[in-house]
Each structure stands twice: as C-alpha cells, then as structure tokens.
C-alpha cells in the first residue's frame, strides 16, 4: 500500500468550492472531491496545532489531560508503528512548530524528514540590526514590532528572502513532496506526509494569486490578523480576507500540482490520498479573528476531509454524512496498511465509511485544554464551559514538560507531583502539574486566554452560522450525557468532571 497524507493548516472548509464556497476560486479542490469521498461532518478534536497533530498520531484526544506539547513516551504514533511494521514514512513540512520545544518529538517518528524553512516566526534568517524604520513604513501598525523573537519581527525578516513564487515555503514543500514521489512511487509500503503551514497566518502569497481579490484598501501590508475581536475598518477587514483568499488560492494551485502528478503516473490505481486540515479559522464571523481565544465555532471546529482509496474507486465523487473527527485518521492510516490498531486508540477507522454511508460515532467532543468541552452530534452543538474558569484543580499530565516554545517554568514544576499511571500510559506514572497563572501558557492556550465563556447551544439544522443560541433542556441534558460518556472513554481525570459540574 502507498499513501499520501496531505495536511494544510487553518483551512476553512467554507472557503472551498466542494463545501459550497464561492468567494475563492478553488478548482483543484473541486477536482479532488471528484476523485475522493468527501466527508461533510468531520470535526476537530484537540486544539490548536500540535494538540491536533497529537490526535492525528495517536488516535485519541489529548486536550483533557494536556495543553500544547510533544508526543509522550507512551504515545502510539502512527509513523513509529509503521516503521516497526516495515512501512516507510517520510515527512515534508514547513510547519516550524515541529522543531520547537513543544513539537520536537513528532518528526523523529518518521524514517526520514525534510524541513522547509521560512514560515511565520521560524527563526530562519539572521539579522542583527533589522531595518526597523523601513519595516515600520511597510507594515500595518498591528503587525509591526521591534521585539526580538516576536512572531511579527521574525516574519518581517524572513519575508525579505521570500519574494518570487519559487521562494515560498509551501511551494518548496510541494517541490520536495513531488521529488519524493519521483524517486519512490514505484516502491511499495510507504506513506508520504506532505504538510504545509499555509493557509495559516500570515496570509502572504505570491502577488499573482492576489489579483483576483482586489480591495479598496490603501495602507501598508496587512495580512496578519490578531487573535482578538474585530475592531478594524471595513477596508482593513476586506484586505485581511482578500489576503486569506490569495493564500487559499496558492494552496489550491499546489494541490493541483500533486493531482496532475497522480494523473500523469496513474497513481490513483495504487495510492491512497488523504487531504484535511488541523482546524479552521475565523475571518470576522462572530466578530472574531483567528481561533483559540473565543468559543469553538464551526468555522474553526468543522473541517474538510477528502479520502481516496484504490479499493473504493467506485465511490469517487460521493459524500458521507457520518460524524467523524481528527483522531479517526490514525486508525484509518493503520488499517489502510493492514496494521492492527492499538488498544489505547479511541478513534475509529473510516474505511467502513469509504465503502458506504454508515455511523461510526454518535457524538464527538473537542476543545482547547482548560476551556469549554464542546460536543456535537451532527445536528446540535453545545459549548459547555466551567462555571469558574479560574478555579484551582486543573492539571496537566505529562512526562514531557514542554510548552509551545519553551520548557515548563521552574515555578510551575515546583508544584508538580508524581501521579499513578493513567489508563493509556502503559504503566508509566506521570507528572501532575497544576495549570496555574505561573505557567507561560496560561494566557496563551489556557484558561487565561478565553473570552465569552458562557455555556451555549445551537441547532445547526436551522442555524448553521451558530448565531442564535437555543434553550432545550432535554437536548442539553442529552449532550451533557454524551460529554460525560466520551470523557470517560478518553480517560479524563476526575477533576475535569468536577470542573464542568459533571458526574464522573
């Protein structure tokens, strides 16, 4: 078996033509849908970037125990399992978080990997004395800073070396992915994980991809939306959305290069293709930009998924309504290669859904560590927030005390205690570290980052935009029951039930 796993970052499903998008031209995603089974009810699990990837690797949720962090010694990575089973895996990515403190154990699970430099705050180009005054004139005040190691300053410096189409990291990712296929497509038993950071912010695309999305904006470069409420002018909002459209168009173009290669070499006959994203993105909906710091609306949580499998070629162009989520990818990839699914996996293989419409799960929970536990059954969504966001008792369970881009602070580790093994840690005890404001992540991905922390419920059938909360005691009670059931299935610690006011 041969598999290409193509992962984008922050790809909003509503921007794609196969999902009804009309504002952005995405003809190659339409081509993709004609070759694949398209999943209409695919949801995230753990958020944001690296927690989502841990779900993808392990086939189980991690946001109930941990914020942003590495793969743990007890985790079942699909890439590591494939290596043991004799299936070769290769990672090509410009997603620089894989090389940060909080992601440094992911890429090492593959047999080989290639890192493409230059995205966002990737510490790539060295510039001891940047031309600050020139940068101040070039960039919008909301994305200019002289602070070292800030994502905006790093991006301004990196961008000096990214000018032509061929310079862009996502383009170089696809170059490297096609190079792997050129050298290895005739071999057997391999998986290519091809991943680009785009269309994640900053929305920097080659100029030719912006021409179809003009605006009246006349100011300096503005393509880096804040993680805040919308306060920009109409022209500034239009500019940000147009730049997102341009970078999605770039992603569509690069996808087209891959589809062309598969067409040219008849790879649809013997190669599986899985295309998805880690999460979506808010582009002003609900008066918010970005993700993480606001309720987990469907613009973020409800994501695209396309799967082609040679054994189910007759299903090309069909759609599935069954509820699925990120953690289902790992057992699907393993089963594609004839491998057993480890006992710790709580995700479910999607191969039965490739054959025909069926139900693989009744509900799915998802969220950011320490925030709401959200649930959907495909019809309703409930955002269940703790009555007290900052109450004591929230803990991280880990043997790898790393945050997004730094180690756990000594101050937070001073309160750590060794806890007995959890059901999925294979007998290994773990550190129980209180999640307090002493943590560098408390205000970035933890409770301190959250806004609008009010429990609400929506009926997606009558209100797909989630604009009008409903009150239905019976539905609320049923969904709370689903949350409790799925938290138990995923071995949530007792204090997480207490935090939400649920019976363990």
UniProtKB/TrEMBL annotation:
What SUPFAM superfamilies does this protein's entry cite?
Alkaline phosphatase-like
Per UniProt, which keywords does this protein have? Hydrolase, Metal-binding
Q: Which GO terms describe its molecular function?
A: iduronate-2-sulfatase activity; metal ion binding
GO CC annotations on file: cytoplasm
Tell me one Pfam family matched here. Answer: Sulfatase
Presence of keyword Amino-acid biosynthesis: no
Q: Matching InterPro entries, A to Z?
A: Alkaline_phosphatase_core_sf, Sulfatase_N
| Protein name, UniProt field | Sulfatase
